[in-house]
Design goal:
The chain has 320 residues and is α+β, with helices and mostly antiparallel strands. It has helices at residues 5-14, 22-29, 33-45, 69-74, 90-95, 149-163, 235-256, 259-268; strands spanning 50-53, 57-60, 81-83, 86-87, 106-109, 111-112, 131-139, 170-172, 176-179, 182-192, 199-207, 275-280, 283-292, 298-302, 305-309, 313-316.
């Protein structure tokens, strides 16, 4: 991967939202104005809005709060979080290092060059405006014990966001976070391990905090960011809160399974008691969502009969 030292230094100087002349920047970084301009192009490739005004220099469209490894680790019960500003994918970073990780090790990034969503989709990941976070966990009971894990992660993300002021954040079965009936965050759980062995799990979350519309054509569903809902959160505080809560929730999940989380899910369920469409492959199943069962299956009611489903995706059923 190419050396990003200079562009990252540039971001940290420009992060205050003020104008900085090319000359000034060149002096600070020991290079020509032409070289500075080349690095500014890199920032634009990362999805950063940089304004260039003749006679004034460069500025960001607004000030940017950067992730700070020391600040996040100071708020963690026991550290072990890395900030890697520019990365292919936070999940891939941990997957490549699993043999030397312990449960609860985590990383966050400012920008992902190859962010991954579910089913091989791309996760649009511009620099500095969202949160991209991954955590490693080793589940001794093996892969079968991971049933319902994505629901626990959803609960943790929604509760952390609510605690920081986003009161209307909800969960969507099986692994999205919703706000105003639109997607605010996605969860990707990647699991390796054979039956009989411990399961090695990498949990990824991408949360739209301040992403603006230019990336929208790359996204095939309704989405929202927290800023649009009038909520501004400190990304360092949010990272620390999610990691602390995840570590304790996963330890509890390991001990007690999904049972202690079913009630917490019900309080956060965006679709509870609403008409939904469940899509499994080419099948469409219509019913009323009635929450989840003890295994994490979706309970759908059709003509007064309730049945649990474990696969597929749901969406709101349009009202005719």
């Amino acid at each position: 991967m190419k050396d990003n030292t200079v562009p990252l230094k540039l971001v940290s100087i420009l992060a205050n939202g003020e104008f900085h002349s090319g000359e000034q920047l060149g002096e600070q970084l020991g290079m020509s104005r032409a070289a500075i301009n080349k690095h500014i192009q890199t920032l634009k490739e990362w999805g950063i809005d940089v304004f260039t005004v003749t006679g004034k220099g460069y500025s960001l469209s607004s000030s940017m709060q950067l992730l700070n490894e020391d600040e996040i680790n100071a708020q963690l019960d026991n550290g072990r979080l890395a900030v890697i500003p520019v990365i292919d994918s936070t999940n891939q970073y941990l997957l490549d290092r699993m043999d030397r990780l312990q449960s609860g090790d985590a990383c966050v990034a400012e920008y992902q060059q190859a962010g991954r969503g579910r089913r091989g989709r791309q996760w649009v990941s511009p620099f500095g405006v969202n949160l991209y976070l991954s955590m490693y966990w080793r589940l001794e009971q093996g892969p079968a014990a991971a049933m319902g894990l994505s629901l626990v992660i959803g609960i943790v993300l929604a509760e952390a966001l609510q605690e920081l002021g986003a009161a209307n954040v909800r969960v969507k079965w099986p692994n999205d976070i919703y706000l105003e009936d639109r997607k605010l965050a996605g969860i990707l759980v990647e699991l390796t391990g054979k039956t009989g062995d411990a399961a090695q799990i990498v949990i990824g979350a991408g949360i739209n905090l301040g992403m603006r519309a230019p990336a929208a054509e790359a996204i095939n569903q309704g989405w929202i960011n927290l800023q649009e809902a009038g909520v501004i959160v400190n990304r360092n505080a949010l990272s620390a809160r999610i990691v602390n809560k995840l570590r304790s929730a996963l330890a509890q999940f390991e001990q007690d399974g999904l049972t202690p989380f079913v009630g917490r899910w019900a309080r956060l369920d965006n679709f509870i008691d609403r008409p939904v469409k469940l899509l499994i492959g080419d099948r469409e199943i219509f019913g009323i969502a009635r929450g989840i069962d003890q295994q994490g299956g979706l309970i759908l009611e059709q003509d007064g009969v309730k049945k649990s489903w474990v696969g597929g995706e749901i969406s709101l059923r349009p009202q005719h």
